[in-house]
Specification:
Layout (H helix, E strand, L loop, with lengths): L1 H36 L6 E6 L8 E3 L7 E2 L6 E3 L1 H13 L2 E6 L5 H6 L5 E7 L2 H4 L3 E8 L2 E6 L17 E3 L5 H6 L7 E2 L6 H9 L5 E5 H10 L3 E4 L12 H4 E6 L4 H11 L4 H14 L5
Parallel strand pairs: 1-5, 1-6, 9-10, 9-11
Antiparallel strand pairs: 2-4, 3-4, 6-13, 7-13, 8-11, 8-12
């Protein structure tokens, strides 16, 4: 009798363990299926940015103010792009991984699947949309110029008042490729490799003014009190730009509809005021403004 009871008990325990294991497997499979359906197969959203483009993104030495680790580095990334990425990941139940790369590598990297998405202050231009798909916008950034407060160009009321001035902008941006050529007789200098290099060209007097977007300009005047923003938005003498030039989006691989929709499901719930509030926070904590 005891032998029969022992056998029955062993069978019951085996069934319980099998059921428990089955439940765990089912949960794991369910989680994996959810990840696959969202376009992020491993549950980790790997995004790329320069980590050198304040206030959109920058590098810092610790995790203060909510900064996140940069892959294969002892440093951390923070800024508006990181703040937005964290919201996207929290809403979708993903982990966040940040890869640091140069500006020209962003689109090729997402095209080849090196990372899932680019959240790096990219304009949603028609040219880029031929190469990648965009979620968003996640910010609306008007085009402006920045000059020194004591510059003769500081009183400019429109782009025609900038005629003849020496200028630059960051390489491979609409600011350099499309906006500066609109200024008559502009002395366009070699494009700056990075946003900090662009600002340094102005600060050191290499150029009279630079062209950028409003968030970058706001970050610049916060870091360099001797700079001023030239905003011609309300003037008829302004840069000609379409929505794609001022809308900032998240790029993903062409055809990754699931990931695009998962990101849009978060961004679509946010307003311009929400974006501006987060941008103000990023500008307040950017390293050069401390």
């Amino acid at each position: 009798m005891k032998k029969i009871l022992t056998i029955l008990l062993a069978m019951t325990m085996a069934l319980a363990l099998a059921a428990c294991g089955g439940a765990k497997n089912a949960t794991a499979e369910s989680t994996q299926a959810a990840a696959n359906s969202s376009g992020v197969e491993d549950g980790v959203l790997t995004i790329a940015m320069e980590c050198a483009y304040a206030p959109y993104n920058w590098t810092q030495s610790d995790d203060s103010n909510g900064a996140v680790p940069i892959k294969d580095s002892t440093e951390y990334a923070n800024g508006y792009d990181v703040m937005i990425a964290k919201k996207i990941c929290e809403a979708n139940g993903w982990e966040l991984e940040v890869v640091r790369t140069d500006w020209d590598s962003l689109v090729p990297g997402v095209q080849t699947g090196i990372y899932d998405a680019v959240i790096a202050g990219q304009s949603m231009t028609a040219e880029r949309m031929e190469q990648v798909d965009f979620a968003g916008p996640y910010y609306y950034a008007s085009i402006v110029c920045v000059t020194k407060a004591d510059s003769p160009y500081a009183s400019a009321k429109g782009i025609s008042d900038l005629s003849g001035g020496s200028c630059t902008a960051q390489i491979a941006t609409i600011w350099y490729d499309s906006m500066l050529p609109q200024i008559k007789d502009a002395k366009i200098q070699t494009a700056a490799e990075t946003a900090p290099a662009m600002l340094m060209a102005l600060e050191t007097g290499t150029v009279d003014f630079i062209c950028t977007d409003m968030p970058t300009a706001m970050g610049a005047v916060s870091a360099y009190p001797d700079m001023v923003i030239l905003d011609f938005t309300d003037s008829d003498d302004n840069f000609a730009a379409d929505e794609g030039d001022i809308n900032i989006g998240v790029s993903v691989m062409k055809g990754n509809t699931a990931l695009k929709e998962a990101i849009d499901s978060v961004l679509s719930t946010m307003t311009a005021d929400d974006f501006n509030a987060i941008m103000d926070q990023a500008i307040a904590i950017q390293p050069l403004s401390e």
